[in-house]
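Work Package 3 committed the consortium to producing structural models of liganded targets before the mid-term review. Because experimental data for this complex are still outstanding, the team generated a predictive model from sequence and the ligand definition alone, so that downstream docking and mutagenesis planning could proceed in parallel. The input record is reproduced below exactly as it was submitted to the modelling pipeline, together with the SMILES string for zinc ion.
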Amino acid sequence: MPYGGFCGPCDAPLTYSGVMGPAELLRDFINTYDVEGDIDELASPAEFTLWLRERDLIREGDRTDEDDLADAITLREGLRNALRADGAVSPGHDAELGALLAVLPLRVGLGPIPTLEPLQSGARQGLARLAVAVVEARCDGSWPRLKVCGESGCLYAFVDSSKNRSRSWCSMRVCGNRTKTRAYRARRQSGAGSPG
Ligand SMILES: [Zn+2]
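The resulting structure, written out as tokens with the ligand in place, is given here.
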């Protein structure tokens, strides 16, 4: 399914038309790997090709190979780390992600609406479009709402639609309670040896 959105400052439609915004596209890309269940939706080049095709990020007939799949996983896990609420990994210090982004050339398109267009075709085009979605999410204001669950065993990506952008977990009922229970136990344990 194609995705789209609107630029915050100028209200111009972003590169692709459709119902899905750039933050939702990135969320779905990150969630192709279920950390908790250790299930990878992108387990083969064929599955990666299908994923890109279904979102109109590559052309009909384009294929991906094992190297492209390895790049996709570098991008996906680099994004997940960059979005971790605990700031465990600084996006500026992910050398592998930085090296990948450096070989996805883009051109500024100066039509009626300025765009960032991938220069390469095939899988590289698909990967570049995912990288462009980061800039588009910043442009439409949704980037700060794109988060990764704060529970270290979950790391599920979600778009925080709360008014004050205060959500830390994908689900308060599951991951929020897990984190709170662990913190409570830790407090009890550390308090057990102290007087009073
Ligand atoms: Zn979670």
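Reviewers should note the following from the model. The mean pLDDT is 85. These observations will guide the Year 2 experiments.
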